[in-house]
Amino acid sequence: xxxxxxxxxxxxxxxxxxxxxxxxxxxxxxxxxxxxxxxxxxxxxxxxxxxxxxxxxxxxxxxxxxxxxxxxxxxxxxxxxxxxxxxxxxxxxxxxxxxxxxxxxxxxxxxxxxxxxxxxxxxxxxxxxxxxxxxxxxxxxxxxxxxxxxxxxxxxxxxxxxxxxxxxxxxxxxxxxxxxxxxxxxxxxxxxxxxxxxxxxxxxxxxxxxxxxxxxxxxxxxxxxxxxxxxxxxxxxxxxxxxxxxxxxxxxxxxxxxxxxxxxx
Length: 265
Fold this sequence. Notes:
- This protein has 7 helices and 11 strands.
- It has helices spanning about 5-25, 70-105, 110-130, 135-140, 145, 215, 245-265, and strands at about 30-35, 40-45, 50-55, 60-65, 155, 170-175, 185, 195-200, 210, 225-230, 235-240.
- The chain starts with a helix and ends with a helix.
């Protein structure tokens, strides 16, 4: 390949790098999907809000602004990732411009600068991806159903059912002598703003204390990516990064390839 064609290839990968950024910032980065025999409920997470789509009621969409719900840790994770993305694409655009200049002038200095800038842009985007993995910790600190993990032991009442607090995305669970697992059913996410509710159903005599952490640790509160079809009877819960995250992963690879090609040109 000639030097001009090599720089042209680098320019192409640089353009793909910027394109992936544009797609990434306009699509959701995280998704929680709850599939059951009666409906499929999906929550998408974006830069400033989450979007809940109720499968049982088509057209029912609830958008929850992080700041309004005081989900400050979730907002922080997204803000940091977005800031790193903006810095990364700024380096990418500058590299693209220098690459165009290099093709026309064959200047070695602009070529090296272009390679360095696109590499820096890729590094910023890579850091953005890795730091986003903290989202599970943010859920643990902010989401009402996850906050219960900070209360390792609860003591049930002697009544058949007991309810405390309000109606914030409560998880309902049952227990029996044949199974120590708890079965959780998530309520409507629209009610997250209220105080937490925990409802206990007693099929048989319960122990004095119930450790609920063994169930919650299998959910998105403690895991970045995964699924669970045991926690809820007849229900499959899947959670993990979504389109925006994966597209940016590809963009980071394109940026690194562009840097290597530019250095070699």
